[in-house]
Structures are given as structure tokens and as C-alpha cells.
Amino acid sequence: MISLVVPVYNEADNIQAFVREVESAVNEPHEILIVYDFPEDNTLPALAALTPPCPSVRLVHNTLGRGVLNALKAGFQASKGDVVLVMMADRSDDPQTVMPMARLVREGADVVAGSRYMRGGRQEGGPLLKRTLSRLAGLSLHYLAGLPIHDATNNFRAYSRRVIEQVPIESQASFAVALELTLKAHWRGWRVAEVPTVWRDRTAGQSRFRLWAWLPHYLHWYLRALECAWFGITKI
Question: What is the pLDDT of residue 214?
């Protein structure tokens, strides 16, 4: 089974279309874990109004502390699948990429990145500075640190069960947990792979991404990756 962990924050404008698109694209048993911080989140009544109801949807109340990192941790804890995949409810991640990602995990990969920067992938929209920094980080970690993917910062990731259960999360905030888990799997000698995907900027709702607040968290793991590659110094 595939567990799709979907952190939400007031995604009423997107959630119904998101669920329908996932249901159309994922053709094996799966669960859609909608992880919310507070009961007033407008995603919840929008989901309740979905017609017909979707039996794959499971609500997960994040009680670990507000914020996307804790929402992801809560989703990981609640997941039941042998493949655990993180998606955003803003419809920026392409549901058509889910099955190829899950297939690679089943073939032995522990982390599979939905990659915007490999051949066949692309990014449509989004702030220019964010796009530029993301691309530079991904390509430099690939060529300078030997990370076997081209997109280090996209959170559209599929993980094996052992990553979820065996790799500790040190990050304290932000979406940088995807980079952390990818690096730690790579450092353990586990297989890290990628498939091309198309990322599209949201057309409804408000982004939770905070570039300047979260940049230090990404920079921490970026420098750790270079340190490991150049000096063989790392702790996993």
C-alpha cells in the first residue's frame, strides 16, 4: 500500500481537486493522510463536502506541535504503507508521478525524488529567487557532493518503510527534512533515485513556504553534505 502524507493549512480551494486527481492517478491500494494542525482549518469542511466521499482519505490531527515539520512527523507515524510519499495539497506536485516513484521504491530504492531538474522534468512558475536557489542547490549537490539526484530540495519524495522507521529526524523546522532524509539515506549507502516530474506553482490559496526563515535550515544540511563529500566527516 502507498501512504500519501499530505500536510495542509487552509487548503479549501485546492483539496477537492487534489483528492480527485490523486484518485485518478494512483491505481493500487493507498491512503491519503490529510494532516492538519487545528480543527478550524478550512480544509476539513471542504473535504467533508466532497461528493462522493473518498474512502482513501484519512484525517490525522497533528498533536506534535504546529508547523509543517511536525505535520510530516505525525503523518509518518500514522502511515501504514510500505511506500510513504509526501505530497503538497496545493496541486503543485504531479499525481502522475506517484506510481513511477512507488515502483522504484519497490525495486529497491529507499528514497525517490520527484525531480524538476533532471532530463524530462521542469518547473512552471514560482518566485525567481526561490527557483534559482533551488536549482543551484540541487545541481551543486549532485556534482560537488555526489548526491545521485539533481533535485535536492523538492519535498515530493517517496520513502521506503525503513527510512521512516530507522532514520532519525534532527531538523527543527521547515521542509528541509526531505534534504535531511535523502542525505542520511545516501550516507548509509542506501539507494537514492529520482524520476522526472513537473512542478507547477499553486493557483489558489496561500503558500506556507518561508524562504528567508527556512533558508538556514537548508543551508545547514547543504554544508553538511559538502563536508561529508570533501572530508568524509558526517554523523548519521
Answer: 60
